[in-house]
Each structure stands twice: as structure tokens, then as C-alpha cells.
Amino acid sequence: MKESIIAKQNEVSQVSEKMKNSAAVIAFKYQGLTVEAFQELRREMRANGCEVSVLKNNISSRAAKECGYDDLCDAFSGPVAVAFSATDVVAPAKVLFKATAGENAKVQVVKGVVNGDVYSFNQLQVLATLPSYETLLTQLAAGMLGTVRQLAVGLNMLVEKGQ
Fold this sequence. Notes:
Layout: H1 2-20, E1 24-29, H2 35-47, E2 50-54, H3 57-67, E3 80-85, H4 91-101, E4 108-114, E5 117-119, H5 121-129, H6 133-162
Antiparallel strand pairs: 1-3, 1-4, 2-3, 4-5
Helix pairs in contact: 1-3, 4-5
């Protein structure tokens, strides 16, 4: 009996450590998905640098409390899986919201943690619609390049007018 309690405490510690070390943790419901569809979702998540775990709700809830994410605990009821991303805060939300719109419409995002803050469904949905980091950098560079180009044209016109 005592061994099972120790094993559960170890599991809570492992999940808690994983939550602490993740940039994003998202709880989602998957009830109604076929095994094939769930495996495909896992492959998609893995391809985007994320990991999906199906844990006991009690263990997930205790791990969340241990990390100080008390507001996340109510997400763990019924069949809930957890997506972890060690580095990318946007990837799990993007993949899950893409899945909810596609053939895996049975996937329901519940709540998540992004950079230590608990996010609601609506906040995660906004996060999922943001362009990728690379796209944002490209947009920034294009905007800056346009401004520099306009400055160069204006200066060139002044120089030509002065001659």
C-alpha cells in the first residue's frame, strides 16, 4: 500500500517538474476521437516540438497545484490530455486549434499555462491565431525596409533638386 502512495508522489513530482520546465502546457479534451485520430494528433504535435500525455486527473491536478497553477486544476475532469512544449509557446495552441477546425472536431481546448500564466480558452485561441515568430520578424523587416526605402527616395529627390 505504501509503495503505491510513493509511486504516485513520484509521478506527481515528475509531472510537476515537466510543467515547470515547459513554456506552454495545454489541457484538452479528446473524448470521441478514434485511436488513429489521436495518434495522428500526437504525431502532429511531435512534429511541432510538443509532447502529449494522458495522465490521471488527480495526478495532473496535484502537479498543477504544486507548480502554483491553482486555476488550471478545474480543467482536469473527464478524459483530458495535456500537451507540453518546452520552447515554443504558440505551437501547441496552433496545432490543437487547427485540429478542432479539421477532422478532429471532437478535440476541445480547455485551459493552459503559457510562460507561467494560466490562460483561458479565449486567450489560447488568440495566441493560436498569431503569426509565427519567423513571420513576425519578416513583417517587421519588411516594414523597416519600406521606411528606409522611402527615406532614401526622399533624400535622393532633395539632392537632385539642389543641383
